[in-house]
Amino acid sequence: PAPAGLPADPEPEEAVTDDSSRHGGRVRCFPHERGSWATLVYLPCGAPEEFLELLELLVSRARTYVSSLAAMEEFHLSLSQCVVLRYHWIDPFVRSLKERLASFHRFFCVADQVKVYTNQNKTRTFIGLEVSTGHFQLLELVSEVDRVLEEFDLPTFYKDPSFHISLAWCVGDLSDRLEGQCLRELQDIVDRFEDSALLLRVQWEQIHCKSGNKYFSFPLR
């Protein structure tokens, strides 16, 4: 899920009622527990006007196959799974991330291959742009993030990751409707979009970590 959609942790005295209708029918990947903060490490992606124009074209076409698709409001490329941190782990976790990521330089990726994804428990389906250039640098970053996760006995990233930027989502596993003909039409829109080669070349300048409602930034050199 996008960072903006991660469940934020309440103050300790607050009671929590999980109501999926309040966030578009999305279902938590893990039950809420007081003192546990949903955490994600990711590369933030800006959305210039031309990118939003491309997004509108893609979502409009995809809705002819799945009418419930919703466009993302923020864009990112994940470097970790969404994991759970205890509150008192947040500061040491962030310090360890900062140390391991300090030597990395800025780099770019090209994300221009349309692909359909589902989350692990098949409760949501996504349309994303998969990275075709920059995979090696992303694997290096994930390797360092994984080492930090291992320090805290947390799940590491996927073994053979498909690095991507999610563009739109819907509730349920509707991948069969979006793959095949729909996917070919979406890829054709991307390939024919004016200046798409330049537009989908993303320069990464910083890494972010979101834990509950706390945000941390690690500039690349």
UniProtKB/TrEMBL annotation:
InterPro entries: Cyclic_Pdiesterase, Usb1. SUPFAM superfamilies: LigT-like. One of its GO terms (cellular component) is nucleus. Residues 1-24 are annotated as: Disordered. Gene3D superfamilies: Cyclic phosphodiesterase. GO terms for molecular function: 3'-5'-RNA exonuclease activity; lyase activity. The keyword Disulfide bond does not apply. GO terms for biological process: U6 snRNA 3'-end processing. Keywords: Hydrolase, Lyase, Nuclease, Nucleus. It catalyses: a 3'-end uridylyl-uridine-RNA = a 3'-end 2',3'-cyclophospho-uridine-RNA + uridine; a 3'-end uridylyl-adenosine-RNA = a 3'-end 2',3'-cyclophospho-uridine-RNA + adenosine. 3'-5' RNA exonuclease that trims the 3' end of oligo(U) and oligo(A) tracts of the pre-U6 small nuclear RNA (snRNA) molecule, leading to the formation of a mature U6 snRNA 3' end-terminated with a 2',3'-cyclic phosphate. Participates in the U6 snRNA 3' end processing that prevents U6 snRNA degradation. In addition also removes uridines from the 3' end of U6atac snRNA and possibly the vault RNA VTRNA1-1. This is U6 snRNA phosphodiesterase 1. It comes from Oceanites oceanicus (Wilson's storm petrel).
